[in-house]
Structure formats: C-alpha cells, structure tokens
C-alpha cells in the first residue's frame, strides 16, 4: 500500500462522515479530491491533528447549516475547503487576504481557459 493510500484510509477512519466506498474516499469532482489531498498532506506535516480538523469541520458545517445549508451531502467538500482555508489562515500559513487573491486569480484563469483544458495560473490572473 502506498503512503498516499495509507494516509487517505487513515483519514477516512479518523473522520467519520467522509463519503467512502469499499476502495476509500469518493469524490464527485476532481477539486474535491485535491482539497482532500491538501488536508491529508497538511495533517501529515503536523499542521493539525485529526481531532482538531474534525472539530473545525463540524464548526464549519454547523455555521453553514445555520445559514441555510440543507446538508444534503452535496456541499460536504465545500465545507471541507472552507475549513482548510480557515485553518491555514488561523495557523499563520497564509492570510485570508492571500487566499482571496489566489481564489480571484483562479476564477480569472478558469474564465479564460477553454473547457476540457487544464487551468494554469499566470501573472495576468493576479492583475485583477
């Protein structure tokens, strides 16, 4: 078993609620797998513990539900990503402003990228 697969399976056991099948985590979109992998990597590097992550994710889901999220399962990884962004900002890895800057650049790059092609950031994407 590869280290990545072992880490992914460890995460699914440590964090109840992750959508899984017999092979491990299940993702509807590639970005969900990327968000999952970023969290697993940051955990492996010691940025947070799984209990800390679970508490932060539960807090994010509760906040979203209080704001009207119906919690049908289709927004799980949106909460995952929001939790990831909050934790890296809270831990001083980056700032909320820098996250917003990259989010805007990504949106700009996605807008100019033809469907089916990989999205690549360039300096022009940060120009605003």
UniProtKB/TrEMBL annotation:
Transmembrane segments: none
SUPFAM superfamilies: Electron transport accessory proteins
Coiled coil: none
Pfam families cross-referenced by the UniProt entry: NHase_beta_N
All residue ranges annotated as the Nitrile hydratase beta subunit-like N-terminal domain in the record: 18-105
Protein name: Nitrile hydratase accessory protein
Organism: Bradyrhizobium aeschynomenes
Organism placement in taxonomy: Bacteria, Pseudomonadati, Pseudomonadota, Alphaproteobacteria, Hyphomicrobiales
């Amino acid at each position: 078993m590869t280290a990545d697969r072992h880490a992914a399976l460890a995460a699914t056991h440590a964090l109840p609620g992750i959508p899984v099948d017999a092979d491990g985590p299940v993702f509807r979109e590639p970005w969900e797998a990327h968000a999952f992998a970023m969290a697993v990597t940051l955990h492996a590097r010691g940025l947070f513990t799984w209990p800390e992550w679970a508490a932060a994710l539960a807090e994010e889901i509760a906040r979203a539900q209080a704001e009207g999220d119906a919690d049908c399962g289709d927004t799980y990884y949106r909460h995952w990503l929001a939790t990831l962004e909050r934790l890296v900002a809270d831990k001083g890895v980056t700032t909320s402003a820098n996250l917003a800057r990259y989010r805007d650049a990504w949106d700009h790059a996605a807008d100019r990228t033809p469907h089916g092609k990989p999205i690549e950031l360039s300096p022009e994407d940060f120009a605003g």
